[in-house]
């Protein structure tokens, strides 16, 4: 059984429109049509409905049935419309894949695919959510982390300060020396944490805003940019469930290979070479960023996804 988690509905709508001469827009009441009767869809062609009633989807190919008596009222609910839309898109995806296979235009290995060709891959993966990652580098979270990180040191300082109150002169000098040493360690720890925090924030400010999206699916030499609006499940939930390097977790991707990664932005925006130094500097910053974050490398394949799903073979 396919568990669809991502679908480029605009692409699928375009496929439906081009292959079936238009998108379905009409709803048909089962009480008005019986088996064998016909109605006209927006393309001007005839569609056959079932005895239980159906939607005029793609000349009658994608039917949605319910009780004859309550079909019309049920179809008006947003929830039902969403179910119908998903069913139509899922069926259309199957047709799209069948079309690619029939036309011998679907590759099953990334190395065999040229730019502009479609691939179907079942691969291990991990999600990258830069919106979430960036949210971790807030001042509030840093301060909270330092409280926990410095907890033992602060307890030791408090203990030594109390000991110093009743200590002899020689003991006080020794305790003061220990306190000074611990405070220096604490200061260095905080400075190191703040330096790393500020460095990552600067990287995020420069790089993440220049990226086309906050969400990606990554596997070795493949990077797949993802649009938030096409997810069928909450992104944070997906990341929580699957954001581990578990080779047993496999996902199927159908998409188009658009090329290999070379640089973040074009370095030839301007005719004046002096002005091009700015995009060049941004690309250098991006190189430093990917040294810290396992994101992308030169020559990685970029795939524009049509659909992502899990297939558990239950059906």
UniProtKB/TrEMBL annotation:
Keywords: Coiled coil. Pfam families: DUF6414 (PF19952). Residues 150-192 form a coiled coil. Residues 30-44 have a biased composition (Basic and acidic residues). InterPro entries: DUF6414. Residues 27-51 are annotated as: Disordered. This is Uncharacterized protein.
